[in-house]
Amino acid sequence: MISYYPKAGKLIGGISILVILLSSLWLIGIGETNIRYSGDHEGTMPFWNRWIPAIIGILLIHFLPFHHKNYLPLQSSEQRHIKLQGVVLFLSGSLFTISLLITSLEGMAFQWLYMISKIFLLLFIPFILFLFDRGNHRKEHPKTVKPIKSRWYWLTPLTVILIWGYFHFFSVFSTPFDSTEVDPTILISALLIGFLINSVLEELFYRLWLQTRLELLLGTWPAILATSLLWASWHIAVHSSGHWDVDIATVMVNHGVIGLFLGYLWARFRRVWVLIIVHGFMNAHPLQLMEILFR
């Protein structure tokens, strides 16, 4: 796939890879290889246990058949519109990270800031951007997805979800699960709100809107890498241990690598429902859902 700025893409991609590698080496060097994997508790696990399911998922995505090769939903749009939208979306995502990192708020006050800034910067700003740019879409006729001539196409992303899910949740590399005694009604409400605010909104913003445009500007893998690190960066605020070097390195080797899996999943299949399902399970362990259903 030809991008508008391939040299910039190679530079950004190289820097992104270097950030992930240096972060992992830093954690190994200071003996902090057990990282926090959730902002909800203090549980830790070796960071390579987070890598292995993601790497297996990436390999499955690459080698399994029935994917959209070199298809970009906006490939017939004007370059100036893609550039404007890409810059505005990236800045909006950056401001979201900055707003969480510079605040001194804690507890519920921080949660309100998180919710409001996320909805404003990741939903309202893109909505206004696309609304004002709608004239472009009226004049242009973006290429539609050419259907893959196989009734079994849907099995490919489903296979990826199932195999990745096994390694992520039920293998020796799996994320630990802690049972909770929270009232089911409260827990279901929290999971539903979290699903909409985190899984749905984040995948719409970071992958569907931002990464798609960066792919045209920089190339597929540079866009995946840049989007992954931007997505990972806001987690520094919720995984904070008080040590900036550890916090930054932790989210880069954790969410930064998981973001590569999510980004490649989007680049190959262009099915946002697949991303939302995977992200949803990342935030709500399947055993937790089973516990709610059969309690």
Automatic annotation (TrEMBL):
- Which segments cross the bilayer? 12-30, 50-66, 87-105, 111-132, 152-173, 185-204, 216-236, 248-267
Identify the keywords attached in UniProt to this record, alphabetized.
Hydrolase, Membrane, Metalloprotease, Protease, Transmembrane, Transmembrane helix
What InterPro entries does the record point to?
A: Rce1/LyrA-like_dom
Keyword Transmembrane helix assigned: yes
Q: Please state every residue range assigned to the domain named CAAX prenyl protease 2/Lysostaphin resistance protein A-like.
A: 187-284
Which Pfam families does the annotation name? Rce1-like
Gene Ontology BP term (one):
proteolysis
Q: Which domain of life is it from?
A: Bacteria
Q: What is this protein called?
A: CPBP family intramembrane metalloprotease domain-containing protein
